[in-house]
Automatic annotation (TrEMBL):
Residues 30-43 have a biased composition (Pro residues). It comes from Spinacia oleracea (Spinach). This is Methyltransferase small domain-containing protein. GO terms for molecular function: RNA methyltransferase activity. The active site is at residue 465. Belongs to the class I-like SAM-binding methyltransferase superfamily. RNA M5U methyltransferase family.
Length: 530
C-alpha cells in the first residue's frame, strides 16, 4: 500500500509524511483553549538573537506561547506544543549563520494561532458521522480537527458547515479500501483581501474558497447531482446572501485514481466569485484553486517586505522557481525594476501571472516576463542578464545544475555566453526546448530598453522552506568562494512545527584576490613655527 499521510505542513498535491512529535505527555496541561475567533496575540515580533546566549538553560514551558489544542495528541499537523514563538531550530540557525559570518540573524515569530489560510483535509467516516481532518500519525485513520488552532477560524467554520451538509444530504465520504464513496478531500483557501473593509478587519473576515474533491470522472456522472446539492447547501447557508457570509466560492475537482494524489486534472467552478485575489508584498495577486500558494499569508507578507530592502531600485531580477511570479512582480512594483523574468515549471501558473500583471499599478517602464521552463535546464542563460537572482525552490532545495552555474559565474566569459543564451538570441533558434519555452512564455514590454544581456548577478536571494537542504546548498555556494553570506532572517511560517522559512542574502565575490591597498604614508605636516 502507498504511504499517504495528509499533512497540512506543505502544499504539494500529494499527501506527505508528518513530522515526528517531540513532546512530553507529562508537560501537557489542559487549560481550556480560547475561542478560535479570538486568537491570543503573538509575542513581540522580530527577535534579534545573540548566538552567545543561545546555550543558556532553557526556560520552563510558557503557556503564553503554548498550542493549547485539544487535537494535539491525535492529529499529525503540529509537532510542538510549547514555545510556538521560538522553535528550537532557530537556535541552530543562529549558530549556523554565525559560523558563516552573519551575526545579526533575526527571527520573526509572526502570528502563532489562526495563521493557516490554506488547508487540504481528508473526508472519511460515514455520512452520519463524517471525519474531516488529517491522518493520525503513522496510520490512515482520519482525525477530526474542528478546533484546530492553526487554521484560520473561518476554515474551521466552513468545515462545520460542510459537516452539516454531508449529514443532511447523506453524502458518502470516500472509502480508501473499497474506492467507493463520493467526497474524498476538501481544500479550503482563505482570502483576506477585502478592500471594502478597514485594514484591521480584513484578516478576521477572510472568505473561504472551498474545493470539493469528488470521486467521479466528471460533472456528468450520476452522482454529480449530489455534488451540486452540496455546493448549493454551502452557498445558501454560508454564501454572500447569508448573514454568515463565509464562503467566497465553491469549486469541484474530479479524481478517481486510487493513488495518494489528492487532485485530479479536471476542475469546475460551481458557485460564487470565480476570481480569487489576495494582497501580499504590496500587490494584488491572483490564484486559482490549483495554484501553488503560501499557507501563511501574513508571514509571507512579512518576508516579502523584508526582502524588498535588499533589492536596489531599478534592478533587473530573475525569479527562479517563481510560481505565478508573486515575488518578482512584487519587486517590479515596489522597487521599480527595469526587468523581471519569472521561471516556473508548472504551466498552470501562467494564467495567474497574467491576471496579476493586469492589476499592477505603475509599472510602465518595467519589462516583465514569465517562462514555463525547468530551471535546471540551461540555468546560466537565466542567470545572465540580471543584477539580482531570487530562488524559492521546493523543500528539496536547488537543482545541482543551478548550483554549478551559480558557482561558476565569476569565470563566465560574458560574450561567449550571451551569444548562445536562450534568453537573448532570437535568430534562427532550432533547439526544441527553447522553442517550447517560447510558446509557454508571456512577455510584457515596458519602456526600459537598456541592453542587459551582459549583466551578471551580484545578489542572490535564497528563500527556503527546507532547512536541511538550505544548509547543504549554502555550504556549496560558499565553498567555491563565489558567494558570501551577507544577511539572514527566519520567519515562523509553520508555528507548532520545527519548520521555518529562511530568507538569505548572498553577495557575489569577484573570484579575484583583492589587491593589497598601497597605504599612503602621510608626510607629517611641517610646523609653521619650524
Ligand atoms: C516553494 S514554491 C515557490 C513559488 C513562488 N515563488 C511563490 O512564492 O509563490 C516552488 C515552486 O517551484 C516550482 N518548481 C519546482 N521545480 C522546478 C524547476 N525545476 N524549475 C522551475 N520551477 C520549479 C514549483 O512548481 C513551485 O511553483
Amino acid at each position: 500500500m502507498l504511504l499517504s499521510f495528509l499533512s497540512p505542513l506543505h502544499l504539494s498535491s500529494t499527501a506527505l509524511i508528518p513530522h515526528r512529535r517531540f513532546t512530553s505527555a507529562a508537560l501537557r496541561t489542559q487549560p481550556p483553549p480560547p475561542p478560535p475567533s479570538a486568537p491570543p496575540q503573538s509575542p513581540p515580533n522580530s527577535l534579534s538573537l545573540n548566538p552567545n546566549n543561545l546555550n543558556s538553560s532553557a526556560p520552563p514551558p510558557s503557556l503564553s506561547c503554548a498550542l493549547q489544542c485539544p487535537h494535539f495528541q491525535s492529529c499529525s499537523g503540529c509537532t510542538h506544543e510549547y514555545d510556538l514563538h521560538h522553535p528550537s531550530v532557530v537556535d541552530e540557525a543562529a549558530e549556523f549563520f554565525k559560523r558563516h559570518g552573519v551575526f545579526d540573524f533575526t527571527f520573526d515569530s509572526c502570528r502563532l494561532y489562526g495563521w493557516r489560510c490554506r488547508a487540504k483535509l481528508a473526508v472519511r467516516g460515514s455520512s452520519a458521522n463524517p471525519l474531516i481532518g488529517l491522518y493520525e500519525e503513522g496510520t490512515h485513520n482520519v482525525v477530526d480537527i474542528p478546533e484546530c488552532r492553526a487554521h484560520h477560524p473561518n476554515i474551521n467554520a466552513a468545515v462545520e458547515l460542510l459537516r452539516k451538509g454531508i449529514a443532511e444530504l447523506e453524502v458518502e465520504p470516500y472509502d480508501e479500501d473499497l474506492g467507493t464513496g463520493e467526497l474524498r478531500y476538501v481544500q479550503m483557501v482563505v482570502t483576506t483581501h477585502m478592500s471594502s473593509l478597514p485594514f484591521s478587519e480584513r484578516y478576521r473576515n477572510g472568505k473561504v474558497q472551498v474545493t470539493l474533491v469528488w470521486n467521479s470522472r466528471s460533472e456528468t456522472t450520476p452522482n454529480s447531482e449530489k455534488l451540486n446539492s452540496l455546493a448549493n447547501f454551502l452557498w445558501t447557508n454560508g454564501g454572500q446572501r447569508n448573514k454568515i457570509n463565509l464562503i467566497h466560492s465553491i469549486w469541484a475537482n474530479f479524481q478517481t485514481s486510487s493513488s495518494n494524489i489528492i487532485f485530479g486534472n479536471r476542475w469546475r467552478h460551481l458557485v460564487g466569485e470565480r476570481d480569487f485575489w489576495e494582497h501580499v508584498g504590496g500587490i494584488d495577486i491572483y490564484l486559482t484553486p490549483s495554484s501553488f500558494g503560501q499557507a501563511n499569508t501574513r508571514a509571507f507578507d512579512s518576508l516579502l517586505r523584508k526582502l524588498h530592502k535588499y533589492v536596489p531600485y531599478g534592478s533587473s531580477v530573475t525569479d527562479l522557481y517563481g510560481g505565478a511570479g508573486v515575488i518578482g512582480l512584487s519587486l517590479a512594483v515596489t522597487k521599480k525594476c527595469r526587468s523581471v523574468r519569472c521561471v516556473e515549471i508548472n504551466k498552470e501558473s501562467k494564467h495567474c501571472f497574467e491576471k496579476t500583471v493586469s492589476r499592477l499599478p505603475n509599472v510602465g517602464d518595467s519589462n516583465m516576463s514569465w517562462h514555463n521552463v525547468d530551471a535546471s535546464l540551461e540555468p546560466l542563460s537565466w542567470l545572465m542578464g540580471s543584477d539580482v537572482v531570487v530562488v524559492d525552490p521546493p523543500r528539496k532545495g536547488l537543482d545541482d545544475s543551478l548550483i554549478s552555474a551559480l558557482q561558476s559565474l565569476s569565470s563566465v566569459k560574458r560574450k561567449a555566453v550571451t551569444s548562445t543564451s536562450s534568453a537573448s538570441n532570437t535568430k534562427e533558434e532550432k533547439r526544441p526546448w527553447v522553442l517550447r519555452e517560447r510558446e509557454g512564455s508571456v512577455s510584457i514590454q515596458g519602456s526600459a530598453n537598456r541592453s542587459e544581456s551582459d549583466l551578471l548577478p551580484q545578489t542572490l536571494v535564497y528563500i527556503s522552506c527546507g532547512w536541511d537542504s538550505f544548509k547543504k546548498d549554502c555550504k556549496q555556494l560558499l565553498s567555491h568562494k563565489a558567494w558570501h553570506l551577507d544577511k539572514a532572517h527566519g520567519f515562523n511560517f509553520f508555528p507548532g512545527t520545527e519548520s521555518i522559512e529562511i530568507l538569505a542574502i548572498f553577495k557575489r565575490d569577484s573570484g579575484l584576490t583583492p589587491k593589497k591597498k598601497v597605504s599612503k604614508i602621510k608626510k607629517p605636516k611641517k610646523s609653521s613655527r619650524g
